[in-house]
Amino acid sequence: MMIPSSIFFAPRLWPRSALMSFKALGVIFGLTIIYASLTPVGAGGSVPHADKLMHALAYAALTGTLRLGWPIIWGGFIIIGVGSLGIGLEIAQALFGNGRTGSLADAFANVFGAGMALVILYPFRKRG
């Protein structure tokens, strides 16, 4: 049996448990990003700029779960919140002496990943 696309693309019609699962994942992803961003790290990887891809993917996952968990919230508020988190963590890395450095390129990758998630999940916005 096929699921009608009108239900698939309308998260407000999803079971409450599905929405709660996405909300929980969003909180878990957010806390994981905060922890990973503020703890000291060892030597970097061998692939140049691979960390930018990791930043973009992490913030895309965070934004995606928040978008699906709270479909009624305007996407602009989500990207402002997630982007502010990413920029704030980069500033915190620059200020704290824990062996990490803040980077404008990392902050851009954070916001870019968040924006791409909203573009990909555009059909899942609240309708009507």
Question: What's this model, at a glance?
Answer:
66% of the residues lie in helices and 0% in strands.
Write structural notes for this entry.
- This protein has one domain.
- It is elongated, with a radius of gyration of 16 Å.
- α3 crosses α4, α3 packs across α5 and α4 packs antiparallel against α5.
- Helices cover 66% and strands 0% of the residues.
- The longest helix has 23 residues.
- The chain starts with a helix and ends in an 8-residue tail after the last helix.
- It has five helices and no strands.
- It is mainly α.
- The model has no long low-confidence stretch (mean pLDDT 84).
Tell me how many strands there are. Answer: 0
Radius of gyration: 16 Å
Structural class: mainly alpha
Distance between the termini: 26 Å
Helical amount: 55-70%
Please state roughly what percent of the residues sit in beta strands, choosing from under 5%, 5-15%, 15-25%, 25-35%, 35-45% or over 45%.
under 5%
Give the overall shape, derived from the CA principal axes: elongated
Major pleated sheet: none
Mean pLDDT: 84
- The low-confidence runs, each spanning 5 or more residues with pLDDT under 50, are none
Number of helices: 5
Number of domains: 1
The helix/strand order is: HHHHH
